[in-house]
## 1
Amino acid sequence: MINIPKGTKDVLPKDAYKWHFIEDAARGTAELFNMKEIRTPVFEHTELFLRGVGDTTDIVNKEMYTFKDKGDRSITLKPEGTAGAARSFIENGMGAGLLPVKMYYIIPAFRYERPQAGRLREFHQFGVEVYGAAGPDADAEVIFAAAHFLNKLGIKNVKLNINSIGCKECRARYNAALKDYLRPHLAEMCSTCRERFEKNPLRILDCKEEKCKLVTAGAPKMIDYLCGECKEHFEKVQQLLTAGGLEYTIDPNIVRGLDYYTKTVFEFVSENIGAQGTVCGGGRYDGLIEELGGSHVPAVGFAAGMERLILLMENTGVQFPEECGPDVFLAGMDEESRTAAFGIACKLRSEGISAECDHMGRSLKAQFKYADKIGARHVVALGGNELESGECNVKRMSDGSTEPVKIDGLCAYFKGKK
Ligand code: HAM
């Protein structure tokens, strides 16, 4: 037998309704915030992620699914959605149109990580990106969109953490201060952090190793190094969150695992799904479009991990509304009435009424049982008498009541029930 690759999951037909619920909530949220869908390829040129996500990040250094295609091009399965959306924004000249451009996506993403609860090698994201708006109101709107989405799913126990990692200028000043602080402790830290020290010291704050956490606990905070503009921007974001009634905590240790962020960064975190508690993360990234060869276009967005959301909902007892069974099951007593049932089912479906009939040669009694199991809302049993008289009984499964209906009138009858 060939097994599923490690770190991936099948969504079985019996569980697909959970995904439909989350996808509907995502699309509904995007619509409310006037965001249009963007679909980009599942793979891109590797260079996009080297330049976009950043060559000092774990994603680029350790986790990408990269391969040479038959034309000897280096191709990578997308590890996230922002870089592809930004590439498309530039390539399609969207910056020359009406701004802001507000878009969303629901995508599979691929990262070669060590699988554990809530951490997969193929996972799915609902993401949102807003291009062209530099002001703090865009940051706040994106955060509210994420909060609305989580709320729509019925998720309550999540905490919103925010931080600002400033612009290039404040980052340079902060990096210098951070390095001054860390330098005497280098020998106490893990080898990865020692490497990060020169290339990207900010990432050291995100290290999960106890010995590094001990060192960084006393490190200077980015938030104390913000320039006037970044400070004002961050304060305004907070005012807007408060104005909209969203509670938040400032967490000076959020740095995020991708290099493109500037100013506001945020995460929605849960304590109910183990170590991988971040269900949604995002922030502003004002330099990415330029970095990828476009003009200066400010941007802000987020992505939520759909598997983590399902895990969180399951772990906290949030109900997924189950999808309904067919409107009607057409049972047949004998060969002739089974054929008639098949024909009626075809007709009903062409009129938008979901219909099912037996394909397993079940007895009439077993067909009723089956209809009940699949959640059919009505059952019609057809036999010689019904075919002769042109009239049948429609049984309503919720209360067992029956109603005589002309076979020719079944379409109109069920349409009236919709
Ligand atoms: P990210 O924090 O790398 O950000 O991922 C966003 C979310 O994807 C995480 O909060 C988590 O829920 C989910 N996720 C990440 N890795 C995995 C995994 N291995 N298994 C399961 N779920 C995972 C981004 O990807 C940015 N592109 C977000 C963004 C959009 N920033 C601005 N715009």
## 2
Amino acid sequence: MSDSRFNDVRRFSSIDSTNRYLLDEARAGAPEGVVAVADHQTAGRGRLGRSWEAPPGANLLMSVLLRPDLPANERHLVTAAVALAACDAIESLPRELALAGLVKIKWPNDLVDRTGHKLAGVLAEADLTATAGGPPPVVVGIGINVNWPGPNDDLPPELASTATSLRLQAAGGGEVDREMVLAGVLTELELRVAALANPTGRQGLASDLAAQCTTIGASVRVDLPDGSFEGLATGLTPEGHLVVDVDGAPRTVVAGDVVHVRPRV
Ligand code: BTN
């Protein structure tokens, strides 16, 4: 990986949050490409102010520092690039694990299995005011459920019916090597992040996102800070935003929590 921008991989046995760490590094001028990986996070961050929990040593908890030079309305593609890289990496795991074709993306950027159980979450955090080190930083963190939950784990009640893991989905149910998943994500990230740099590459990211997106065709409820609405998700814009048909009128969702009320058929 010597020609990759993701060669500076910083490892932590325990840290509060790899996203927090890289945002602070970015504010101090760290360059694009720094990666932080933790065995355990004591204050892992999830989307919409939630926490992100995983027992020590079980899952892949990582963040990457990017400095994309993108118009504001295309920033969603940064998280898409990371989500797609993770899908590609899972798709390329050894054939005997039988994980090919498993992973889809629930908009905006949850990785889910065929039945909608969550395999991974992606959280992008930007500091548009940071001036050191080049274009403003976007830190994208991903937590991939690699070995937790496993066959005998008691999950917290809020996860019991919604989460799954590579281990649970893999043929044989044995441990999946986190290092192998990390190496795959970094390899695929190089390609996906390179695509962000030009309009054709960004078009490709948006169309790959649409192709993987299990939300398109589903009846959804969109929860926004000022209320909710329901409709049929019909597609994505070229920037990767979700288009929802509400009583015959298209509504574009840039950010929000999406619940699949009825999956697509
Ligand atoms: C979600 O809510 O679905 C997003 C979860 C993102 C979790 C990852 S784990 C590594 C990185 N560091 C954090 O504090 N959060 C992200």
